[in-house]
Structure formats: structure tokens, C-alpha cells
Amino acid sequence: MEKLTFYAVSAPEKLDRIGSYLAERLSRDVVRHRTGYVLIAMEALDQLLMACHSQSIKPFVESFLHMVAKLLESGEPKLQVLGTNSFVKFANIEEDTPSYHRRYDFFVSRFSAMCHSYHSDPEIRTEIRIAGIRGIQGVVRKTVNDELRATIWEPQHMDKIVPSLLFNMQKIEEADSRIGPPPSPSAADKEENPAVLAENCFRELLGRASFGNMNNAVRPVFAQYSHHVIQEILGHLDACKKDSPRVRAGIIQVLLEAVAIAAKGSIGPTVLEVFNTLLKHLRFSVELEANDLQGGSTGNANLNTSSKDSDEKIVQNAIIQTIGFFGSNLPDYQRSEIMMFIMGKVPVFGTSTHTLDISQLGDLGTRRIQIMLLRSLLMVTSGYKAKTIVTALPGSFLDPLLSPSLMEDYELRQLVLEVMHNLMDRHDNRAKLRGIRIIPDVADLKIKREKICRQDTSFMKKNGQQLYRHIYLGCKEEDNVHKNYELLYTSLALITIELANEEVVIDLIRLAIALQDSAIINEDNLPMFHRCGIMALVAAYLNFVSQMIAVPAFCQHVSKVIEIRTMEAPYFLPEHIFRDKCMLPKSLEKHDKNLYFLTNKIAESLGGSGYSVERLSVPYVPQVTDEDRLSRRKSIVDTVSIQVDILPNSIPSDDVVSNTEEITFEALKKAIDTSGMEEQEKEKRRLVIEKFQKAPFEEIAAQCESKANLLHDRLAQILELTIRPPPSPSGTLTITSGHAQYQSVPVYEMKFPDLCVY
Question: CA end-to-end span of the chain, whole Å?
Fold first, then answer.
């Protein structure tokens, strides 16, 4: 060793080769677990490092640090401690000129990990933790004095160093029951006690921090324990739930300020606890408000009730702001969980999935809590960007969001649409679409869009009909206001931008034509303003989509209709109908067809550009769902006049002749019993819907055509038959039930090819 040291000092240019050779030997010995040779090689490296201080030492240091890293990466505690000791020796050497290209990221990460060692042997665990703390101390001493190399103060390093020191500063053993202050630690304790060593290292770190770097060093201290502060505030809020609204609003305001610090460093259970507690207090506040409204009386008591009602709204708004602020500051993976969590709390009629107790709220309170939760959800979803729409709108989230229960009120429908816009608008186009209007040139909006990915196409095949149905029914609500039509227009435009391929474009045009037809026919007896509002919505959307797909003939047809409307029926355009004091027509029946968008013209224009336009000839009918029967609203079944049965094997063969059964009271009773029939009808409707959703269009068209031809033949046969009743009845039927006997009725038979009618 003496000869090697003398040689290295005499010929410093050889240090690089010496270091490379020793590093090569040491790497081989570490892999082969030759611990003795490893110790010899590291001792040689240490002595050479301490003896040589020339400029040529720079390449040698790189070999040295490479070997220290090898030792720290090994799983042997003994080698990890050996590598740490060598690094500490190196850290105490003052170099003449700093090496600015040298970085210590690996050593910060490795020493921080050693500080959290959980080795099964307590002595070895303590030894490794002490080595990690000493390593961090060495990194700090090596880098902190050089102001030009301030990488150690960067947040990514401080977020590892400070928590590691704080972790070891905790009392590992149970606190001793002692009287008086603890004695000062001895020099031996400082080296052997991780808590004492970590405290000294932390003091040294803060002592070396400049004013500009202090924030990075102190911030992790508060972030690590901020969730304790949040829990204390939540506990205080629970304890004060019966206090005045002003007191509760003040506590929630403090929570809002504390959440600003805690949101970034929060973890799963803490986040859910915050939201669960806030939603519980939101329900409690709405319940108090509902009880006050129901129990209010006239006179002074009524004034007090009104004042308390406004105070409860302050509490509710504070809770919503806190939920929204906390949610919007969470990372995306946590935010999606919170979205599902809040959606699961929204009361949806006919289901028991929500976990928020609304038994004491009544209809008014339930509506209020729905609005509050949707407002909270709106704030949480603000700014959320998902790569695919399936991630943003999974089925478990979309189904309750589009529930008929959330269409009871115009404000609920507005919130639902705004939540959908937050999740659909992945390219920030919504601001450009604000305001329902006829856009002269859509290209001026500079719409941002990407090619539709496979996942988004699959989403629309699975959920497209659900979205169309929601928009269709939302347009036909009697309590719609101007904002509702704006949001519905934006929904159609966003679907076109974010999710529309050629097939979806055709479906959207079918939907628009169906809305136009519903406004003209007016089976729902809508007021004239709403009928004209639907016509204006259709005009605005078809103007937008025609320019987006850039089919000249389609654009020409839409522009011509809009031009005629401007001259003859301005109330069919959004710029006029949504203006105050717009003159409304008395009826729509006498209007010329040139004022309407015609399906045959659209099909002709799109077919000439290569679009598959067969489905345009099939009128859009919203799908029927089981939830319609659970909702308090009028079922969509009431508005659909025709149901087409395309199930296989549903058409009896011509050569099958029905057998005549003996008619008894039990048979009639069984026929009258409709409970089983309802289940069969429900299953039949489900199969029909599933068939329409999943079967290829060509198959559906072929079956419909076959069914139509067969029906035509049957009707022809029936019309050609001559009904010849026998000269006398073929028999009589006497129905007896209990003690009552009904009169006998004559029975005539009219036989057709495959059915018998009585």
C-alpha cells in the first residue's frame, strides 16, 4: 500500500488507470461475494483518495463513487455500511475546484432509503439507519457550501431528505416515565442513536440553508404532518355540528385554508375521510334547512327561519368550495376515485347504491342535496383531463349521472351536462363553443381535435345511445330555459369534436332530425317557445356539424334553410328566439317545408361524399330502459307508439296450427294474471334493446325487412278471408266463480291459417 501510494503521488496521471483497475476488481469481488477482497480494495481506494489532492484526482473520484454506489446497491448490510463510511470520508475532503457535472441524485435516494430500513435484526436495522443518516449528512456537507451547485435544495431532493430525518427523529422506544427534562446526549449517543443523529443532521441542514432555500427545506416538514391538522379540524367540526351555522361555516373556512397545504401530500384514507365528513355535514345542513322550511310559521318566526336558511346556505357553499378546492388539487388517479365516491352519494330514485342517508329530507331536501352534490362534483371534475373517455366516464359513473332522477329539474339537468362537459372536453374547446348561435365560419374557432382512438370508438358503440337519449329527452322538458339549450348544443358539439367518427356523425344527424320532428308534431304539448327553441338548437348544431365534416352539398342545404328562416321565420334561429320579446308563431303546421332540414336532401348530400346513409331513413327512437319504470317521471314507453320485434324464432311457421284448448275458469284466471307477463315483457324489451345495440346494422335491416314482408302477406290473407259463422253457435261457455254464475255466451270460431280466435 505504501508503494502504491508513493507511485500514485509521484505519477498522478496514473490515478485514473489505478482507479479503473481497482473498480474492476472490486466489482467482480462484490458479485462473487468475496468480502475480504472487497474490504482490501475499498481500503486502497480510501487511502489513495486521502493521499492525493491534485487535479488528476477528478477521474479517480468517478471510479471511487461508482464503487461506493455498487456497495450501497448490494443487499449486504456490512457492505452498505462500508460504502457509507467511504463516502463520508470523501465528503470531508475539500476539493480545490468543484466538479459541476457531478451529481448526487443516486446517493440522496439510496441514503434516504437506508434511513427507512426495516431489517429483521434490530441491531442491524439501527446500524443501517445510522449509516443512511450519516450518508445524508455527507451529501449535505459536500454540496451545500457551493452556491453555484444548489441541486441539493431542489424539491425532489428535499422531499426525500427531510422526511427521512423526521422519520428517525421519532421516539422509537416507548417514552420513559421520567421526572424532569431528559439528560443531554453524550458523544456516544450522538453516534449510536438514530434520533439524536438525525436531529443534529437536520439542524445542520437548516443552519446551512439560505433565505431562498429555506422554503424547500421547511415545506416537507409541514406536508408530512398536515393530515393530522386536517383530522383535528374535522374532529372539531363533528363536535360542533349542533352549533350555529356561522360557527360551522367558520370552521369549514379554516379547513379550506388548511386543505391548500395538505392536498398535494394526502394519501388515500385521509382523502376519503375528508370527503366523507364534509358530505355528512352537507347532508346535515340540508336536513336542518328542510326542517326549518317545513316548520316555519308566519310573523317574526318566519323572519328568523329565513335568516337561518340563508346561514345554512353559507355553510353549504363553504362545504362545496372546500370539496372542490381539495378535489381539484389532487392527482388525477385520486381525483377519479373521489368523483366515483361523490357520485355514489347522489340520491337516485329507485336504486339503493347511494350511501347518503336521505330518509329525513323529503322531496325538497332530496332535490337540494342532489344539487349540492352535483355542484361539488362539478368543481372536482374541473380541469380533469383523461386520455380516453372510458377513463373519465366509466359505466359505473355514467349510469347514475344520466339517471332520469337527475332530470326532474332544469337546474339538475344543467349541472349534469356541465359535469359531462368537464370530462368530455379534453382539448379545451368549450370556451370557443359558448353561446348557442349560427357560426358563419367554424374554421375561425380553431377547434382542437385528434383522431378518434379505438377506446373512444368502443365507448360510443356501448354508450352512445345512452347519451343521445339523454339529450333527446332533455330537449323536450317543459321547464327548460335558455341555458339548458346552450348546454345541450354544447353537448352535441363536444361529442362531434371528441368522439365522432362517420357512424356517430350519422347518429347525431338522425337525433337532430328527430328533435325537429318532435317540435313539429308536438306530441308532448310543449309551449311554442320550447318548440322554437328546439328548432333553433337543431339549426345551430347542423350548421356546426356540416362545417366540421366539410361536405359542400350538406353545407349548402343547411345554409339555404338558415337563409330562408332568416327571411321568413327568424324565431327558428337561436339569435332571435332566445332574445327578449321575440315574436312567436301561433302554429307550425302551415310552414313551408323549405324551412325545415330534409332527411332526403341530407342523405343525398352525404351519400355523394361516401357516407353510409342507409340509417338516415330509420327515424331515431330513444331506447327504453328499466329505470324509466322506477322513475317518478312519465315513462318514455308512453311516447313510443311502435315497437319492432326482431327477436329470432319469434315468428311462427306457416305449417303450425294452434290447438284449441278446453276453456275453464282456471285457464281464464291464468290468462288474466299479468304478473308473469310483465316479467316476460321486461325480458323481451331487454333483449330487443340489446339486439339493437350489439347486432350489425345489416342484420337488423334484413330481419326488419323479412318481418315486414311476412306481416304484409298475413294482412293480405286476412283481408281475403270471408268470415262464415255457422248457422248456430258451436257451443256455449258458462263462467262460474264462487257463488256467482255469469250468463252463457255463444262461441263462434273464425279459423285462419295458423291461429284460432274466439
Answer: 118
Going by C-beta distance under 8 Å and a sequence separation of 6 or more, which residues neighbour residue 134? 84, 85, 88, 197
Question: How far apart are the C-alpha atoms of 346 and 374, rounded to whole Å?
Answer: 8
Instruction: Residue count of the chain, please give it.
Output: 758
Q: Which residue has the cell 449509516?
A: 131
d(CA 39, CA 79): 9
Within 8 A by CB and 6+ apart from 636, the residues are 469, 473, 622, 624, 625, 628
Neighbours of 252 (CB within 10 A): 24
User: Cα(142)–Cα(111) distance, rounded to whole angstroms?
Assistant: 14
Query: Residue 41 is which amino acid?
Result: A
* Residue 341 and residue 275 in contact, taking contact as beta carbons nearer than 8 Å: yes
Q: What is the DSSP letter of 682?
A: H
Number of helices (H) and strands (E) in the chain: give both, helices first. 30, 6
Query: Which long-range CB contacts under 8 A does 250-255 form with residues at least 24 apart?
Result: 252/278, 252/281, 252/315, 252/318, 252/319, 252/322, 253/318, 255/230, 255/322
Which of 50-64, 144-158, 409-423, 568-582 tops mean pLDDT? Answer: 409-423
The whole-angstrom separation of Cα 707 and Cα 712 is 9
Q: Please report, for residues 2, 4, 8, 61, 62, the alpha-carbon distance to residue 54 in angstroms, rounded to integers and kept in the order given.
A: 18, 16, 11, 11, 14
SS3 content of the chain, % helix, strand, coil (to 5): 65, 0, 30
Three-class SS string for 80-145?
A: HHHHHHHHHHHHCCCCCCCCCCCCCHHHHHHHHHHHCCCCCCHHHHHHHHHHHHHHHHHHHHHHCC
Q: How far is 400 from 405, CA to CA, in rounded Å?
A: 9
Is the sign of the CA dihedral 452, 454, 457, 459 positive or negative? negative
Angle at 410 between CA 626 and CA 385, to 5 degrees: 80
**Residue 740 DSSP code:** E
Q: What is the spatial distance between Cα 292 and Cα 306, in angstroms, rounded to a whole number?
A: 9
Q: How many alpha carbons lie under 13 Å from residue 467 in its C-beta half-sphere?
A: 27
Q: Rounded to an integer, what distance in angstroms lies between the CA atom of residue 119 and that of residue 133?
A: 16
CA angle 176/136/82 to nearest 5° reads 95
| Separation CA 189–CA 174 (nearest Å) | 17
**Mean pLDDT computed over every residue of the chain:** 78
CA distance 702 to 682: 25
C-alpha closest to that of 319 among 352, 272, 283: 283
Label residue 263 by pLDDT band (50, 70, 90): low
Winning range, highest mean pLDDT, from 58-72, 204-218, 354-368, 432-446: 432-446
Beta bridge partners of 740: 737
Higher pLDDT, 350 or 493: 493
C-alpha cell read off for 278: 364534509
Q: Which residue blocks in 431-479 are alpha helix, DSSP H?
A: 454-475
Structure-block grid coordinates of residue 491 = 353537448
Return the SS3 of 757: strand
Q: Where are the alpha helices (DSSP H) in 500-639?
A: 502-521, 528-549, 552-568, 574-577, 599-607, 627-630
Q: Buried b / exposed e across 143-173, counting CB within 10 Å, b at 16+?
A: bbeeeebeebbeeebbbbbbbbbbbbbeeee
